[in-house]
Amino acid sequence: MIGSEINLQECRAKFGDQHLYRVAKIHSEAEQFFRLETIIFDFRMSETLNEIGIYQNFAGIVFFDLSKNSLEQLVNSTETKAAFFGFCGLHTFLNREILEVSLSRKTDLEKLEEVCRKLNTKFAVVKAQVGLLTARVICMIINEAYFAIQENIASREDIDLAMKLGTNYPFGPFEWCEKIGVGNVYELLNAVYESTKDERYKVCELLEEEAGHFTQGRKGAKNP
Fold it and tell me: Residues 39-61: pLDDT tens digits?
């Protein structure tokens, strides 16, 4: 697992303690653990795209966190024997009953079935896009909740309560945002908007401000 101690804890919570876990905070520390049977969950590649060459001679399984990039952006220029898959590594989206996964090659579906059996998890193949499926939907709901606050429609507490009672969601939008991290929500939405130009993903100014990315040029702009 390439990432933080928190990422390691989530992997353990999702896949159990029957596996041998190794954690590397950076890619250069990870190579010593590479074996043919190694399954890698890489939470860091989107931060260091120039490190993709580390997998050039690796023939195992690699899952990339797609909360900031699409799978194509990460691996399109890499020739390797490894099987590359995408998952969403944002907090609360890994440790779920069904693991959302994307493929870089359709021919790797059999390998995915095999590795998910080893990890004892159900999985669903979704489009290899930024945020995959569930995280995009949740972050879009969070964004709409910020618009509601910005327009003084309701309080944060009332919106959270209404979503939990009305939709049976485990968390309200602002509770979920706090768990994910407002900066991570911003980065996912912004990455999706930049790749699609779909107005549904245009980041609310209030959310952008709270994430610390508010730009002077957007002040005074009319909300969509």
Answer: 999 999 988 878 888 888 888 99
* Cα–Cα dist 168/37, whole Å: 40
pTM tops 0.85: yes
Same domain, 153 and 178: yes
Listed in sequence order, the DSSP H helices in 156-181 are 156-167, 173-180
Alpha-carbon separation of residue 90 from 44, 77, 114 (angstroms): 12, 25, 24
Burial code (b: 16+ CB inside 10 Å, e: under 16) for 100-120 equals bbbbbeeebeebbeebeeebe
Q: Residue 83: which domain range?
A: 5-125
Q: How many domains does the chain have?
A: 2
Residue at 10 is within a domain: yes
User: Coil, strand, or helix at residue 174?
Assistant: helix
